[in-house]
Design a protein that fits this description.
Layout (H helix, E strand, L loop, with lengths): L1 H28 L6 H25 L2 H9 L8 H7 L11 H12 L7 E2 L7 E2 L3 E8 L4 E7 L3 H22 L8 H14 L3 H14 L6 E2 L12 E5 L4 E2 L3 H6 L4 H17 L2 E4 L7 E3 L5 E3 L5 E4 L1 H16 L2 H10 L9 H16 L2 H4 L2 H17 L9 H17 L5 H13 L3 E2 L2 E2 L2 H9 L7 H57 L2 H22 L2
Parallel strand pairs: 5-10
Antiparallel strand pairs: 1-3, 2-3, 3-4, 4-6, 7-9, 8-11, 9-10, 12-13
Helix pairs in contact: 1-2, 1-6, 2-3, 2-4, 6-7, 10-17, 11-12, 11-17, 12-13, 13-15, 13-19, 19-20
Organism: Paenisporosarcina quisquiliarum
Pfam families: ABC1
Family: Belongs to the protein kinase superfamily. ADCK protein kinase family.
Length: 540
């Protein structure tokens, strides 16, 4: 087993060192000259890295899959092509031999499994990085799902976390990621969140807690758990027949309204965040089932996260700012949540948020031609990468959950209006909240309600947007023009310096051949000066 641990650590660390080295050498080689051709080379490099990571993760399993899923949500630090490749990385890893799973099951029960479970399936119906699920029946015929932990997974994760410590040390010492991520907090969050998945009794408690919290919500179900058969490494729960929430053929065949379903699902997730507390940290399509009558079934509570009441209030401030078009309030909330550092250009970010919200509300993101949309997205990516925007480590799994959940909603209904769904519930909640000495004022509530009364709210908003857009666009274009002018100046200066360098070098060779000392000195001075200017501009 020690050999396996050493092998895993070697594979993980070696792959990381190779990736760091490739990125560092590439950046040094092309620093200051990221032309379209160079950018294409960069995309090919990170795509190769993502494919290698994916192959390694599927082979090794364990923490590698979890980390890959986390990295696929980090658009603030990871290249788009890397994210696109890892988006297909799921928790589906090769199953362990059934005999080994049965052996662990009987060790936990200290009895032959057939004394308790009949008709256990020959193969797992689901295989993840932590455990596998089999279908069976209790003695009274009740169908159940039996989740069995993968043998040796605790040792595997211990080895992976040791490897991750080494990788984090390397990243902090030799890469720029250390300025964007608090690796110590991230490591602690990973240990706490992923480590909790190893205790199936904790998953049982989490599942019951969610069932209690949402007992009054219509159209939502949670599995029943069986304490007498559950242990730290075995979990027995009710078997609920249903399809994946993203099975559109099943949804359409049963006459389920997709828009209504996506709205109910969004409210279910929203309620998990509003008052603080636990939220489902892994809401992918396989963990959300749909029954033929439209009932939503939430399963697998091994990975849950928590959000405090103070953090929930800051989230509210962000939502309020978006809904009320008060973008300074949005930025205040982001600063409180530590997503935004104090030295950020608030004016630039406020304009960017305003443009995105305006495009969303006018449905321009779905109606505009691809060129305009791509330009908007490229601008936003540039802002994120140049401004001190970060994802705090303690929100890593919340960000992953939101990203995964929004992906599910998009599959169900690409045109779902999340802001319209959120407005009435957030208004109801906001009027009961206190933010220091300031409450959600009556004036804000009136403005908020006016924006939620239906189609008529579109008229004044579109007028305001029309009136404000020239100012925002003028400010935005001024910033873009200033940046373009500076870039052109640097390129022209660098080109001029390069020409002078070549000419002075040629003159110097002629002066040496002609033994013309004054010309040699003059050309040497010009060459050194122009080379210094050229090199200085290339590093700016």
């Amino acid at each position: 087993m020690e050999r396996l641990a050493i092998y895993r650590i070697y594979r993980i660390v070696w792959m990381s060192v190779k990736f760091f080295t490739q990125v560092t050498l590439f950046q040094r080689r092309y620093k200051g000259r990221f032309t379209p051709a160079v950018n294409e080379k960069w995309e090919r490099l990170v795509t190769r890295q993502a494919k290698e990571y994916k192959r390694t993760a599927l082979k090794l399993g364990g923490l590698m899959i979890k980390m890959g899923q986390f990295l696929s949500t980090r658009a603030d630090i990871m290249p788009p092509s890397f994210i696109a490749e890892l988006e297909g990385l799921t928790d589906r890893v090769p199953a362990v031999p059934r005999a080994r799973a049965i052996e662990l099951l009987e060790q936990e029960w200290n009895a032959v499994h057939t004394d308790t479970i009949m008709n256990l399936s020959d193969k797992p119906v689901a295989s993840a990085s932590i455990g596998e699920v089999y279908k069976g029946n209790l003695k009274d015929g009740t169908p159940v799902a039996v989740k069995i932990q993968r043998p040796d997974i605790e040792r595997i994760l211990r080895a992976d976390f040791r490897a991750m410590k080494i990788v984090i040390w390397l990243a902090k010492r030799f890469t720029a990621f250390g300025k964007q991520i608090n690796f110590n907090l991230l490591y602690s969050e990973m240990v706490n969140t992923i480590g909790a998945e190893l205790n199936f009794l904790q998953e049982l408690r989490n599942g019951r807690s969610f069932a209690d919290r949402f007992a009054s919500m219509p159209g939502v179900r949670f599995p029943v758990y069986y304490d007498e058969f559950s242990t730290r490494r075995v979990l027995v729960m009710e078997w609920i027949e249903g399809a994946r929430i993203t099975d559109l053929a099943f949804i359409d065949a049963n006459g389920i309204n997709r828009r209504n379903l996506s709205e109910r699902l969004f409210r279910l997730f929203l309620e998990q965040v509003l008052d603080g507390g636990q939220f489902h940290a892994d809401p992918h399509g396989g963990n959300i089932l749909i029954k033929p009558d439209g009932t939503i079934v939430l399963i697998d509570f091994g990975m849950v996260g928590s959000i405090s009441k103070e953090e929930a209030r800051s989230v509210l401030k962000v939502v309020e700012g978006v809904l009320l078009k008060q973008y300074d309030r949005v930025l205040d909330g982001l600063e409180e949540l530590r997503f935004l550092l104090p030295q950020a250009d608030r004016r630039l970010l406020a304009n960017a948020i305003a443009r995105v919200v305006a495009a969303y509300e006018s449905e321009e993101l779905t109606q505009m031609d691809s060129f305009v949309v791509d330009r908007l997205l490229d601008d936003l990516k540039g802002i994120v990468r140049t401004q001190p925007v970060q994802l705090p480590a303690e929100f890593a799994f919340f960000g992953r959950a939101v990203s995964t959940f929004i992906g599910v909603l998009h599959v169900l209904d690409p045109k779902v209006d999340l802001l319209a769904i959120a407005r009435p519930r957030v208004l109801e909640w906001a009027t009961t909240q206190k933010d220091g000495d300031q409450s959600f004022s009556k004036e804000d509530a009136v403005r908020f309600a006016l924006k939620a009364i239906g189609p008529f709210r579109e008229i004044p908003q579109k007028v305001l947007t029309f009136l404000d857009e020239p100012t925002r666009m003028r400010e935005y274009m001024q910033i873009r023009d200033a940046e373009s002018k500076m870039l052109r100046y640097r390129l022209q200066t660098r080109m001029f310096a390069g020409i002078i360098s070549v000419l002075s070098l040629g003159t110097g060779f002629y002066a040496i051949w002609d033994e013309h000392s004054p010309l040699m000195v003059t050309s040497g001075i010009f060459f050194v000066a122009s080379a210094w200017v050229y090199r200085g501009k290339s590093y700016n």
